Amino acid sequence: MSIGTIELRTFTHDDLPAIRQVLLDVHGDAYADQMDDEFVQRFPWFVDHWGGHPGFACVIGYDGQEPVGFAYGAPATEGREWWREHVPTPPADPSTFSVSELMVRPRWRKQGVSEQLHEALVAARPEALAVLLVDPQHPKVAALYESWGYRRVGNRQPFPDSPNFAVMLRDLKASRDR
What we know:
CATH superfamily: Gcn5-related N-acetyltransferase (GNAT)
InterPro entries: Acyl_CoA_acyltransferase (IPR016181), GNAT_dom (IPR000182)
Oligomer: single chain
CATH architecture: 3-Layer(aba) Sandwich
Organism: Streptomyces cavourensis
Protein name: GNAT family N-acetyltransferase
Helix content: 25-40%
Domain N-acetyltransferase: 6-173
Keywords: Plasmid
Order of helices and strands: EEHHHEEEHEHEEH
């Protein structure tokens, strides 16, 4: 699948051994100025954790042969949708796809690549909802997600050394019905 000059390729859990280093390389470039942060340094663990999920889905964008960014996630375990604590009345269908990472290398930022990656990741998902966490220190990123149909429903600090992230939820069924 190609959009503009970026070719989007999809991958699954079975592809993780082949794409793991690509994900690590893109992360290294995207966070080059923050590599002394212990939370940022744990990224390989997150790749293995999410990639180990049988429902893992990943989209990597390429400019020619060069990876420019990626988005990945996995379905939430039914009945354990952690975002529920932030919503007074859960929807009738709480099936959720957790968007874990969306990352674009600096050279390709501000060109619409992040939206292309994100939409390719969630467009065909069977789940009713998508959830993600955003560092509130990056209000422009949160505003971007809001422009894609997400709404902030609360805050969550999943790890002692992580930021207290904004929890953002998107109704995927409503997005498809537009």
